[in-house]
Amino acid sequence: MSAAAHHSPNPPILNSFASKDELAIHLAEFVVKAQKESIDKKGRFTIAISGGSLPNMLKGLIPNPAVKWDKWQVFYVDERAVPLDHPDSNHHACTTALFSKVPIPKENIHPLDPTLLDDLEELSDSYEKELIKEFAQRDSARFPVFDLILLGMGPDGHTASLFPGHELLAEDDRWVAYLQDSPKPPPKRITFTFPVINHAARVAFVAAGAEKIDVLPDVLDKPELGLPAARVRPTFPGQLYWFVDDAASAKVNLARTPFRL
Description:
Layout: H1 3-7, E1 13-17, H2 20-42, E2 45-49, H3 54-57, E3 72-76, E4 78-80, H4 90-97, H5 120-135, E5 148-151, E6 176-179, E7 189-192, H6 194-198, E8 202-207, H7 215-220, E9 239-245, H8 246-249
Parallel strand pairs: 1-9, 2-3, 2-5, 5-8, 8-9
Antiparallel strand pairs: 4-7, 6-7
GO molecular function, one term: 6-phosphogluconolactonase activity
Keywords: Hydrolase
Protein name: 6-phosphogluconolactonase
């Protein structure tokens, strides 16, 4: 097999559900299965989570006794350069919706360093070092290989803090980059880059609601448009999943996959 063939991505798997509640139930099952496979294989589960509406979609994990919270290592795909208890903080959103309600050890959650908010370069370097600490001693890969990365998508097709037309779309070296000109407030952020996202074993987008109905076909059916969310293509053997509701996917041509674990 040629190197190019080896790295060609698997086609995305599109799961569409009748309601957000049904989506949340099956998303929790999916996360638990990914967790079990990772723990069985190597004794830990590395996951990166975005903010926005995503934390609330993870509510199905709260009552689930199969979740081994002590084995989780949680990172944030992107984060706003604000204090950890600020309403704009992804860490704050995830803590409020999920982590405050489950027995996850505090040291297993990796927020940004709030003492570095005034220096974005230092802030992103510091977060990259957190990743190096978790991954470099175990893996020899050029980029960290997360067991699961969970992403959201904005109505403009952005994901993480990677926005249409932004210079960070071309970043192929750094693990964590910063921006001070986010078109969506707050302007100062740090974010995983595409190489980190695309090296994950599994990447799952969660996109629900009628406000996504026009952008979803642009991402799934017209990747040539180059929207940030369409640039998420995990390298083989990684797999991309979409968890959407029927309100968001009504105009999509890509074949839906009957959900199965």
